[in-house]
Amino acid sequence: MKALVAVKRVVDANVKVRVKPDHSGVDLTNVKMSINPFCEIAVEEAVRLKEKGTVSEIVVVSIGPKEAQEQIRSAMALGADRGILVETATDEIGALEVAKILKGIVEQEQPEIILLGKQAIDDDSNQVGQMLGALLGAGQGTFASEVKVEGGKVQVTREIDGGLQTVELSLPAIITTDLRLNEPRYAALPNIMKARKKPLETKSPADYGVTAASKLKTVKVESPAERQAGVQVKSVDELVNKLKNEAKVI
Ligand code: AMP
To answer: Among 3.40.120.10, 3.30.2290.10, 3.30.950.10, 3.40.50.620, what is the CATH number of 2-246?
Structure first.
């Protein structure tokens, strides 16, 4: 069984992002970039399925600038077998275009399991997995906290508001990963070295009949409002008074 994992290059989760002075986006100059954390969970899940013998090959794909090769190599160091970079001129590519490119790759590669993160932490859009499911007419198990592949089906336990829901999908199936699905491993140095020799193909959006121009335009990006300093109160009465008359929350 083949697994395809989509990984996005994003600003590292530990970096405090700076908005560009003209508010056109986030300043990426000299900023550490990494695999989107939810995509790393998707890679880890594919590797675990391979270790169990369920999956025989893991193909990792990223759509983005040339530098996204680094994230593909990182995924290979974690255990993916080969990579596809769909090179675009900019980082700004819309969710629908990404989903259409992924559809083209799925049609070529014919994976049974398609793993994505539930969302990319740069724009928190949470759309690509669902769009890909719709474009392919495939079942989707989103926000997965457990994945079991058995007898040509996959059972996905999903984190929903009221608790956990388990759905059964026929293959090929789309799975988007939530935080509690697994804890990704660290890449060992020998595996980082081995990853350099694994095959990595470069394609263009046009190879999948897609023009990478997004239908969305970012109008303005702003930093969150500064948090105001807190105050210390001397008594419960004073606290209740402030909550009632100043914050007006009770
Ligand atoms: P989003 O819908 O943009 O929040 O992203 C959800 C998931 O779709 C990510 O965690 C990735 O698995 C996949 N994805 C989004 N954008 C890309 C991209 N440019 N390249 C590869 N995968 C992507």
So the answer is: 3.40.50.620
Backbone angles phi, psi at 138, to 5 degrees: -105, 155
pLDDT tens digits, residue range 11-64? 999 999 999 999 999 999 999 999 999 999 999 999 999 999 999 999 999 999
Q: Is the dihedral of CA 186, 190, 196, 198 positive or negative?
A: negative
Residue 6, ligand 1, Cβ within 6 A: yes
SS3 44: helix
Residues 113, 46: contact at Cβ < 8 Å? yes
Whether this prediction's pTM lies above 0.85 is answered by yes
Residue nearest to atom 14 of ligand 1 (CA): 8
Tell the burial category of 105 from Cβ atoms under 10 Å away from its Cβ (0-12, 13-18, 19+).
buried
**41, 117 contact by CB (below 8 A):** yes
**Which helix (H) or strand (E) element contains residue 116?**
strand 113-117
**Whole-angstrom distance, CA of residue 239 vs CA of residue 168:** 50
Binding site membership of 130 for ligand 1 (Cβ less than 6 Å)? no
Kindly give, in sequence order, each residue whose CB lies less than 8 Å from that of residue 28, ignoring residues fewer than 6 positions away.
11, 91
The structure tokens listed for 124 are 């928190």
| Region class of 53: left (phi > 0), else alpha (psi between -120 and 50), else beta | left
Pocket flag, ligand 1, residue 177 (CB < 6 Å): no
Within the chain, where are the H helices?
37-51, 69-78, 95-109, 128-136, 189-195, 236-245
